[in-house]
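[job 0412] stage=fold_complex status=start
inputs:
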Amino acid sequence: MSEKATEVIFTEKVPALKNPILIEGLPGIGYIGRNAVGYLLDELKAVKFAEIHSHHFPFVVLLDPKKNGVITPIKNEFYYVKGKARDIVILIGDAQSITPEGHYQIVDTILDVCVQLGIKEMITLGGFATGVLTEQKPRVFGAGIDQKMMDSFEKIGVVFKNTNIGQIIGASGLLISIGNQKGIKGVCLMGETSGMLLSDPKSTESVLEIITKYLGIKIDMSKLDAKIKEIEKIIEKIESLQTKIAPGASAGGKKKEELGYIG
Amino acid sequence: MSEKATEVIFTEKVPALKNPILIEGLPGIGYIGRNAVGYLLDELKAVKFAEIHSHHFPFVVLLDPKKNGVITPIKNEFYYVKGKARDIVILIGDAQSITPEGHYQIVDTILDVCVQLGIKEMITLGGFATGVLTEQKPRVFGAGIDQKMMDSFEKIGVVFKNTNIGQIIGASGLLISIGNQKGIKGVCLMGETSGMLLSDPKSTESVLEIITKYLGIKIDMSKLDAKIKEIEKIIEKIESLQTKIAPGASAGGKKKEELGYIG
Amino acid sequence: MSEKATEVIFTEKVPALKNPILIEGLPGIGYIGRNAVGYLLDELKAVKFAEIHSHHFPFVVLLDPKKNGVITPIKNEFYYVKGKARDIVILIGDAQSITPEGHYQIVDTILDVCVQLGIKEMITLGGFATGVLTEQKPRVFGAGIDQKMMDSFEKIGVVFKNTNIGQIIGASGLLISIGNQKGIKGVCLMGETSGMLLSDPKSTESVLEIITKYLGIKIDMSKLDAKIKEIEKIIEKIESLQTKIAPGASAGGKKKEELGYIG
Amino acid sequence: MSEKATEVIFTEKVPALKNPILIEGLPGIGYIGRNAVGYLLDELKAVKFAEIHSHHFPFVVLLDPKKNGVITPIKNEFYYVKGKARDIVILIGDAQSITPEGHYQIVDTILDVCVQLGIKEMITLGGFATGVLTEQKPRVFGAGIDQKMMDSFEKIGVVFKNTNIGQIIGASGLLISIGNQKGIKGVCLMGETSGMLLSDPKSTESVLEIITKYLGIKIDMSKLDAKIKEIEKIIEKIESLQTKIAPGASAGGKKKEELGYIG
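[job 0412] stage=fold_complex status=done
writing structure:
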């Protein structure tokens, strides 16, 4: 009633940013985007400055497994990092919209923040599931609208040609497309993954290599494996949650079979 | 058209309340929260003062099984109790939202009433299904944000540690999380239940014991079993209703197999 | 964009009405309500004066089977009849809402028209499926809020006691409940039906007998059977349509198996 | 937040149009309408002047298979053609609404543009699936409201009588019905198709023959087969996308089985 359906809450004053670039990593296939930006913001000691809350997020709260019974809301979060050459803004989150129209509304809200911060460039992240388990180093596929920016990423190893990718679902694609209408150019990077894993550290590493190469920064990759293992516990709970919410999106849809369910 | 999608109707003037605490019990697993507050408001002779109506509630009316053909709307109801040490506000209801975004809208409406009444503290109720039928006294699990309030409940027997609870679905969790943003601290209490029972008098009693201990009040528990048996008849109808509504949320979704269905 | 989601279009000026009563018959179990008011408005030569259009109706148009390729929109329609003792307003329609929140919005719109016309009393119609095929004359079950009005209907044969009816889904119930809040008293009449028939002329006749008895009017029932047979053809198309719409509510949800489907 | 749920973006100034007629071809059975207008706008060298964007479209972006990794948004597009006798406005698109209420909102938006351009007449296109594969030349079925316009099309071979068509789902039907309320007369043409083909060049040709005959123009049909083959690749991706979106309309609904899915 008194709230807007989707809103940004600034928790910290943001300093003037130097040529800022947005890196988005929301949940998706193999949690590649989310894990990549999660690792990045830890390594770069990013500072959180805003949260997005939305009526279109799953109607749940999460319990932090590392703390005892502490509730956290479902949200998307903005962080910033002051860099040498340029500053970085990171968007991470627990969930995407669970209603069709919510996707567009949340993306509009994210882009409003970008415009406000003077962001002119962005990298969105995701995974591309091939259906095949391989031992080879996962490739990073790319898509975008700005040919010059796409060329830069192609030079550092991103595969744009003959990818057999027909569409991008959710925020990663919409941000590039609607962002472009608002004068923000962007590239969507998709880590190659089998699609059979809950998370994929190797694919996440491939994506992180491209990002750091593009930004000209270095991060320590040695803790990536361990960190992703840890995060996998949270992902498992979110995944089980989302399959639970999907069929009957109401408290009344609760079934006796859904044990461990709280109402 | 002429109505807001979710609205509060005050049916009674509320007197000034002394340090009021909200106790919420909407339908959920084992109907533990709803039955606990239902018993509490009978025992404490609580006075009803407001109703929440919402377009996001199931699009049905209920027929009171104790009366003959008398229609009652689907609603959430507020009651108050003038206490010795402090006053109590109780929220009880027939249903939660059947649309995803409705959950947030209804919770916002509940919290608007809380702010209006000067409520600074709340207890929300639910059940946690373990999947195991046991003869032991059901435990009460807890979750919250305010550590001091959580500590108080831990001292009187609520289990916050190692609960294996990953998320709370619906109003009980959202109230704590969004309430916290509005300066209302709260704890969510979840009665341990097998998840195989339509209602669970023993788990309901465990929850009521914690509430009365925390509030420093006494209620007669001797009628609990009988009352819950009686309420179970209504629950059965609501449950069957909700599985009916879930698949095809329209009059057109009516199937010939759904006997006893009225259109 | 330029339209409201639900709107009333007056197609005829309504004369001042004398103590008008609303009789509602929208699609439901056995199409009893819809067929009863359809027959009534033919027999009483009712005059159409308004249409309700809504974004919450099925996103289709119908082709009149009696005409060749003539399109009619999905709508609810208001008619009036100038009577001796009192005037009658009839609501008939092709469909109810296909979204959960639309049901409330459409009912609010119907009640706005009622208030505008000075309607203080209404009869809503539906069916109650027993699951049993019998040769006995179908009973008419009732539900309501105003005890005096319920008593009047009980005297002329409506069964209010021990009906085993737990809820009423859709407009028939919501109109009584929300109408009551706006000072319009009403009774919902439900014709007993097996639930296995697409339409039920005998149950429709039982309902019509109660209505005419209550209103103190007489209508010729001899054409009822033939008319309902004719209407059944339209119902079949609407029913098949609604099962088609339910699974994938978009043009993209069209499956090759759904032959005879147009996009 | 800052955007309307459905909006028109004019990309080109439209010159004054002479007695303009709208021809609509959005995705549907056999992609007959979409392919017909797609071919028409190529052959007539139509000029694009506006786009419709909507939160009710699928929450995806498409990757152009002819380009390498280039993202295009889901949209409906308006084109115009300056003709000898009269001017033509063409509406083509990637998708229809994926929410029930979105269909009406998008149709209202299309009609707002029509009113703005002085359009008084329209032809909407679709397919009618018979379930039978035949070698005969596919017929073109018709539906409408304006009897004079329907007569004109009947004279040039459109079948309006005894078609066994009960309803038209989506924009093609709603445009005729709601357009009629705004003073725009129209006819919906539906190409006969088996319903077992992803696209149907022969049925598309039948529909194009009627359109060109009605408009008194000539187009070269020799490239139709080749072009539709080419378009079929894009259709395949859109179709697979739409079955993917239907079950779990959120990023969380992603299943491991849905390979080639990006998030």
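[job 0412] summary: Chain A touches chain D through 64 residues (CB under 8 Å).
[job 0412] exit 0
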